[in-house]
Write a structure and sequence with these properties.
Bound molecules: zinc ion
Structural class: alpha+beta
Oligomer: single chain
Strand content: 15-25%
Number of helices: 7
Number of domains: 1
Radius of gyration: 23 Å
Distance between the termini: 31 Å
Strand order of the largest sheet: 13-1-14-15-16-17
Largest sheet: 6 strands, antiparallel
């Protein structure tokens, strides 16, 4: 099934023509649980990785045998999924109780190379905003599932660009680390449903005059909303609860949807390729290439929520009926930083070292 972002509640460039200069496309990945193959774009699916090429490893020193067994993380997610809406069996409870954080692989030395976790595979033919080195049509993304790298103690990401036609026999089975520092560093396997949408620059990075205009316009909308507010029906004036509920629904439908630049008109939530970076938790920070100094836009955004209360207008039409179903709102079960991690790459030369930013 494809995924379709509803049209934005209004054409923001018609209201603020200056925003046309701050437009960019992004490809929302719309990950959903599934069983991808090596020829598919995916999150945590099998990679088209050459059988004769070494798998990336993390050589940083950290307590590599500790944390959560990846097999436990997968099993517990499967049990929680299978038992949703019913009481868990004794066997399921026993399995869940038996899982814990601990020193699971004591023989794994802290400085021993640890296979990195395959996180995503993205084909340019499916993802129009995926721009890498010339002729390279496939991006493979790995991370070490310990948030203990560098001065900022973060996750460590490895990117591998390749030409898919260069790959003969694919490596199988594919290595993976036995443990993860945190469960939320382990993505659940998902197929993706790429969809290109338009974004506009983060509010705080627009020129001040434009920010003021948008502020004024939003205040105007709020005033209008107050005027339009419909008095909710009182239950006393209805004979039955059903009649009251119906009147309530009619009143709510008449209520104008609140429109907000930040939530509805600028940056899409969820896993995506390209587009703009949101700086809703910290002040905007420059992310410049350490080799050539140019500003690096985000290539890949890894977000805890595909959609939350504030970004509800971005919920795909196909998922409308599933409401707050975690399959649609948090399919990958990944939570990095304070919810969001971005990999930025150099627009001049995508082989220059990438950088990460967090929100
Ligand atoms: Zn590591
Ligand atoms: Zn550069």
């Amino acid at each position: 099934m494809t995924r379709t972002t509803p049209p934005r509640p209004l054409d923001v460039e018609a209201v603020f023509p200056a925003l046309a200069a701050h437009r960019r496309t992004t490809t929302r990945l719309h990950p959903r649980h599934g069983s991808p193959g090596t020829q598919d774009s995916s999150v945590a699916g099998p990679l088209l990785w050459p059988a004769d090429e070494p798998w990336p490893v993390c050589t940083a020193v950290h307590p590599k045998g500790t944390g959560h067994l990846i097999s436990d993380v997968r099993l517990s997610r499967r049990i929680l999924e299978d038992s949703r809406g019913r009481e868990r069996t004794e066997e399921e409870r026993r399995l869940l109780d038996g899982m814990s954080e601990g020193n699971h692989v004591p023989e794994l030395q802290d400085d021993a190379p640890l296979p990195m976790l395959a996180v995503a595979q993205l084909y340019a033919r499916e993802i129009p905003d995926l721009v890498g080195p010339e002729d390279h049509d496939l991006l493979q993304v790995f991370w070490c599932p310990f948030e203990e790298h560098g001065n900022d103690r973060t996750i460590d990401v490895v990117l591998k660009w390749r030409r898919s036609t260069d790959v003969g026999v694919a490596l199988t089975p594919q290595p993976e680390p036995p443990v993860a520092g945190r469960e939320e560093c382990v993505p659940t396997t998902c197929v993706v449903h790429p969809e290109q949408v338009v974004e506009h620059e983060y509010f705080g990075l627009l020129e001040e005059a434009l920010q003021d205009e948008i502020d004024e316009w939003e205040e105007g909308l709020l005033d209008e909303e107050e005027e339009d507010e419909v008095e909710p029906p009182s239950s006393a004036s209805y004979a039955t609860y059903e009649e009251y509920a119906e009147a309530m629904a009619v009143a709510q439908a008449a209520e104008p949807e609140e429109i907000n630049y930040m939530s509805d008109l600028s940056i899409a939530p969820g896993w995506k390729v390209g587009g703009f970076a949101s700086w809703h938790l910290t002040d905007p920070a420059p992310v410049d290439c350490q080799v050539c100094g140019v500003a690096m836009p985000p290539l890949l955004t890894v977000d805890k929520w595909e959609c939350d209360g504030a970004s509800r207008s971005w919920l795909p039409i196909e998922d409308r009926d599933s409401g707050h179903d975690p399959h649609a709102t948090n399919p990958t079960e990944v939570y990095l930083g304070r919810g969001l991690m971005r990999v930025h790459t150099c627009p001049t030369d995508p082989t220059h070292p990438h950088r990460l930013s967090f929100q």
